[in-house]
Design goal:
The complex is a heterodimer. Chain A has eleven helices and no strands. Chain A is an all-alpha fold. The two termini of chain A are about 35 Å apart. By secondary structure, chain B is an alpha+beta fold. Classes of the chains: A mainly alpha, B alpha+beta.
Amino acid sequence: MTDIAATAPIAPKKRRRLSLNATLVVGIVLTIGFLVVALVSFFWLPSNPNIPVIKNRMLPPFLPDHWLGTDGLGRDIVAQLMVGARTSILVGAGGATVSLILGTITGLIAAAYGKLADETISRGADIMLSIPGMVTALVLAATMGSGALTTIFALTAFFTPSFTRVIRSAAMSVLQEDFITSAKLYGRGKLFILARHVIPNIAGVMIVQFTLYFAAGILTEAGLSYLGVGVTRPSISWGMMLNEAQQTVGISSPLAIWPGLAIVLVVLGLNLLGDGLRDVLDPKLKRRS
Amino acid sequence: MQSKMKPVRSRLGAIAAAALMLAAFGSAEVMAASPRAAENKVVLIARQDPGTLDYVTSNLTALRLWIPANVVEPLVYFNKDGSVAPGVAESWTISDDKLTYEFKIRKTNFSDGTPVTADDVVFSLNAMKNSPVVNNSSAYNAVSSIEKVDDSTVKVVLSRPSQNFWRGMGSVSGLIQPEHAAATIATNPMGTGPYVLKSYTTNSSFEFEANPNYWGTKPSITSATVRIVTDGTAGLNAMEAGEVDSVPVITIDLWEQLTKRELDKKFTLVTYPQIGEPTYAVLNQKLDPELRQTLAKTLDRQSYNDAFGAAWGAENTCTFALPNQPWYAPESADTCPYPFDYEGAMKTVAEKGYGSTPLEYASLSDVPDLSLPADIMVPAMQGAGFNITRNAIDLARYSQLIFQGRPPQFDITVMSGDAEPTQFACPDPSKAGWSTYCSAEYTKALGDADAATSDEEYLTQMKKAADILRKDAVIVPLIAKKGVGLFDASLQGFVEPRVGVAIEIAPLHW
């Protein structure tokens, strides 16, 4: 007896749903793993990641006390990666959250409060987007001093104009719908319409954008810390670890590989999560599938 | 089966033969001389860009490595054996009371063909006398007049004997430039040296060519390019790939890599003290003296040295000097008034309540070998009970905070630089420099050393000054680093720097 169902090709519709789920699942797994590592770091660390133990310097990976070895000052790599995850969340999520809030406010104003507001905000966003983000961050670090807060501030400056554009576009689309006209005829004010009808309808876009900019925030923070203008010790960042590893890259390559791998996995996870969520939350995609 | 194996065997044989040939060619390539040898050219690597070439107003090592001795010469040269050789001055006389120096100027031309005159020498010495760079002008502290005697003689009169003046005439303080080209010194310095600077491109390169008007023996190397490669590892990679012939100055953060990659075996490794630097902590003088002394006791020099994994290149010391300076002393019980004593420091902190004094450690975030001390020292000081926070800032802000801020806004920092002890001379507390250090006693000892009429007296006074500096615990030396360089094995003739830290290209030859 042959099981026909088992050998029959999967219908295109079903295959699509499976691949969508796979993207989302991998994204969720990687992101949750990242969050768990950061959370655990508050309660447990293999050792203090800032205290040098010179006699243990440059130990190779896969030792019982130092799973991924030690750096040039004998500090445990796992402990540093765990604390680095916290910084990535603080800075990446911090920058993305503030930008999301500011971008949502400005985007909604641009979409709903007439041509003057729209033109002012849109051109302002254009100007902001024309300024190279990294240069802005370097100038901010030079004037305000480096650190997590400066980095969040820099990320906010990069991301808010982009959020503004996306939210404006999504909100304008919703504002064209018939139910909005009905609400207006019913006498609802703009604020009510935005809060009750527009925001819930663009929530999917906001969530997806948040995950993508969270990932971008982590990348930018790593870049700034790598250049020495982001987070500095006693805080620890994966970018800073890359910077420190650069001095020993000719001697011990894994020192650069571990933080690099962490960045890749987390950014990949967040991007897959964003893509997966978009596929799930976007009604047009849902209809197509 | 047999027939199938044959081609495989023959293929394996071919591969083995090819591998052997490749290995043979590979090793031949390693042994081959630089492609630049036949043309008598060299390519060197510098790690920093000076920004300006005006050695009168800038004291940057990045500039002093290349312009003095190669392009612009001093009046005289001090050789390693202590002898003095002629430079722009063909001969000289020193009065018995050591108050009058007469320099006979060499009949030669600057690189643009114009003759060197006594007026140029008077102009150059006056420019250095008025230099804002203390290291340049300090040689002239005792100078009362600089005058032209005739077209080829210049007389310098001192108010008191000065060792610094005579030594200065063989260093950057004694460099001679043409007065007519002074306006372009920042981009095109000119002199009588064996090379002409053909071009300088910021953050890119220096191009030198042999000076056709040079008075001395024509250099073997006719053309030299100094590429500015800020990434140290990239510089070593370029050396290994045969793209450059020398990395004459290699900073401590690369030493471990250098030996682990066995570059010291593939190339000629030279070590020399002149381009070495002392690394030292600076504890703001406004802090309580006992607090400073307690901080000094938390400094574990051995840990710091070990952290670089290249103990062969640096020595622990409590003396602000390099091993080539006669008053230098390595770390010992006799020469370290506040040796590493962690438990003692913890006890004092607890007894005196220093934990309630907030302290700020200013550290560089973008200079590897100067951010590393903070990684070691801050946790150690915190562990001893000090209430210390780390202010990690980039070079631009650091310069503002430390060098330009008045008074400088830091409690503790670590520096690496010139081993010139006169930089801490301070006759008046209101004129304390960036280091905050000002000691009348120290300044007097330096003054007495300067006025010494014999080498013995000079050394005695310099040792006394070094001792005062140690005991004051403001400038707290950690290690003395050697100058380290790599040269292609076929590139011979390197001489230890004679004019400050300048790398002389002229003695090199293939």
